[in-house]
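Risk register update: the risk of archive-format incompatibility is retired. Evidence:
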Amino acid sequence: MAVTRLKRKIRKNRTKATQRKATMKRLLAIPVIKNVAIEQLEERLALQQESQEAASA
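Archived output:
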């Protein structure tokens, strides 16, 4: 018996694999959103603004 290769099927499988890899890369490139304490950020910003105003004055 002769061996036949399903070229179309091989191409489909390879494209699926490359698409899967691309989506994984894309998802891993996005930073994870973490819980952020808004109050602490506001305090830091207020302190930074005060220090900048004091330095410029």
